[in-house]
Amino acid sequence: MTTQLYLLAVFVALLLGLVVGKAWERYKLRDGRWVDRRRLREMPHYMLGLNFLVDNQVDQAIEELTAAASTDTDALEIQMILGNLYREKGQVGRAITVHQALLQRPDLTKLEQAYVLLCLGLDFRHGGFVDRALEAFQEVLRLDPRNRYALVNLQKLHEDQHQWGEALHVREQVAKIDAGRRPAEQQILGFLRSEIGGAQQRAGDAAGAARTFAEAIDADPRTVPAYLNLGDVRERQGNLAAAVDAWERLVEVVPDRAYLAFERLERAYRALGTPHRFIDLCRRHIERNPQGWRGRLALARHLAAAGQHRAAFDLMLEALSNNPHGLVIHQEIWQTLSALGFEPGLVHRYVALTRDAVFYLDPHVCRRCRYRSTELLWQCPQCHEWNTFVEERIAPARDTPAADVMANES
Ligand SMILES: [Zn+2]
């Protein structure tokens, strides 16, 4: 687990502690059993424990909070945080024991019960006890139907098991709670629908899959895999023109991922007897994305295949000046130079252009958790977020040694 995720978990634990603390305080007041919360805050073990927590010194935090808990055995939130810390340390069994013991308390309010169950669900999920985690989160939702955190965890559990329909159903409830406050919401709904379509496609339900892919695009027009798959389904159904429609729409609506449809479109246009449409499409794409390189490379390859090496070479140099570290461009250039007999003037232009080249580290990195992947992924295997991958570049060594992430462009 990365430090960032770890800090997040600690933060959530703290937050939960505060929320439950408040509820608990109200409960004590209502029950007529007055407990002075200030006494807790004045306890050195408690404050020290929280400080160690913020400082990411888990072992010391556990030590101090354990001492605080033995002084004030009633303090639910301290036990809850302790349990969460055991979980984050990988001591899942211990975390489960602590949280289950809390559930045995006879005087828990509904809200307190929900929060302890939430912690327990996280323990189970962490320990790989999927069914018990599902049960715990469902129980949280029975007690507190609008608990967003439980819903999101439930969604992720379903996603882990590729239960896309269930995941979508849960996510729609999250969307209702968020009600347009988070723009990423539609994107997640789109990607989940796209996965459902993929499952239908694999099961042989082409018509159902096509419908679902169209729904995914309606949910969020930036759901790139839905366009690709929709076209593939239509192509397999024998409707190449409709397939081309889907792929062209991708180029139009999501230009930074347009390149994913280039090969399919080139092949389809050829099959339809209209290869010039590929040249037109690339030219339009290049015009609309003057800083891009993939449209230029695609067109250059197309022209080179037709023997137009000089025009291809010019396009490749343009692509290279937009993306000097694209190995694939260098390879194409060498092939073209070879086809043109290594004409000295052309070689000179290439060498002059590459003098300032920088290199790719890893092609794709998750913006959220910085997970690295050699291929473009739609869902991050580490933080499970959707559509977070960008291409990573480093600046030339003479400028700065620090890696920085730049938005991908085509
Ligand atoms: Zn990630």
Report the count of strand segments: 4
If classified by CATH, what would the architecture of the domain at 3-144 be? Alpha Horseshoe
Bound molecules: zinc ion
Report the total helices: 20
Strand content: under 5%
The amount of helix comes to 55-70%
Average pLDDT confidence is 86
Structural class given helices, strands, pairing?
mainly alpha
- What is the CATH level 1 assignment of the domain at 3-144? Mainly Alpha
CATH topology of the domain at 3-144: Serine Threonine Protein Phosphatase 5, Tetratricopeptide repeat
Strand order of the largest sheet: 2-1-3-4
Q: What sequence of helices (H) and strands (E) makes up the elements? A: HHHHHHHHHHHHHHHHHHHHEEEE
Task: Detail the topology: elements first, then pairings.
Blueprint: H1 3-31, H2 37-41, H3 44-54, H4 58-71, H5 76-88, H6 92-103, H7 110-127, H8 130-143, H9 148-160, H10 164-178, H11 184-202, H12 206-219, H13 224-236, H14 240-253, H15 259-271, H16 276-288, H17 294-305, H18 309-322, H19 327-339, H20 344-354, E1 360-366, E2 372-373, E3 389-394, E4 403-405
Antiparallel strand pairs: 1-2, 1-3, 3-4
Helix pairs in contact: 1-5, 3-4, 4-5, 5-6, 5-7, 6-7, 7-8, 7-9, 8-9, 9-10, 10-11, 11-12, 11-13, 12-13, 13-14, 14-15, 15-17, 16-17, 17-18, 18-19
The chain binds zinc ion (ZN).
Descriptive key words:
single chain, 410 residues, Serine Threonine Protein Phosphatase 5, Tetratricopeptide repeat, 4-stranded antiparallel beta sheet, 20 helices, disordered C terminus, binds zinc ion
